[in-house]
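Suppose you are handed a protein chain with no further information: no name, no annotation, nothing but its sequence. What can you learn? This example shows the usual starting point.
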Amino acid sequence: MGNVISLDDYRNFKLAEAQETGPIAPPPVLNRRDIVERDFSQFETILFGMLKIKEIMAHHLYYHEDWKHYLLCILDAVCYPDRRGPDTSLDENLELFKGYIAQETTPDNIRDFSMVLLILDMISCSPILSRVRLVQAGFGQPAPVGLATLLEK
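A reasonable first move is to predict its three-dimensional structure. Written in structure tokens, the prediction is:
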């Protein structure tokens, strides 16, 4: 039979467990030039940026679950811009994720987290996301942006 525990107890347990085992993911391979030179006007490149963020976060915050939610909400907003409901605002999710990163930044991970913020800024300036913002504001029709477009190719 299952036990009911508080969320704080669960987080403390996960934190203690993580400190015992250490990082599971290998250190990320980062190249600022590779990120800056990419063209974030295509869905594939946005997906590359999201996977690079996942790689960095999995190495540094392997014991936290919150960042995964933010990443999935951003990806969901990009893939399905016409969806309405909670957690669908792209700009709100980007800002919440940036705030979360600012809270979790330490002297040990500041270099890698600055790369995450750079990737998020590059993604937020993407022409694809401009179209997503217009659809979420109620202007225009959703264009095929996400996974369905990739599968059709």
